[in-house]
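Quick note —
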Amino acid sequence: MDINMIDGIKTGDIVRNAAGSASRASDDDFARRLEKAARENDERELKKACQEFEAIMLDMLYKQMKATVIKSDLLEEDPGREIFESMLEEKLMEQASKRGSLGLAESLYKQLSRQYGRNVPANAAENTQTRESSGEE
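Predicted structure written out below.
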């Protein structure tokens, strides 16, 4: 008896569908927050939204790269492991975006700031990262 099946539906498919739905909901929330930050001229919220966008992009990129790796039979697949790995990867990509290693959030922030009529100095994102890493707000 295969316990990975519920009424003919693989539990792994259920997990993937749920994760996809959560991701789409998160993407919609991102768009709303970005629009709100632009409307209210909230610089901090705009920077945060840009960092979240970078995290989403990194997460998508990582998942696509991981999909190309040949799977091994060494470790058995199960829904709990899939959920754990998905959550771990999401947090890792979130941390990578906070470090600003790609610079996507910084570039996006500068572009959106110009688009919404703010004057942004060339090193504005760098100054913000320095203040945030030192604990200043």
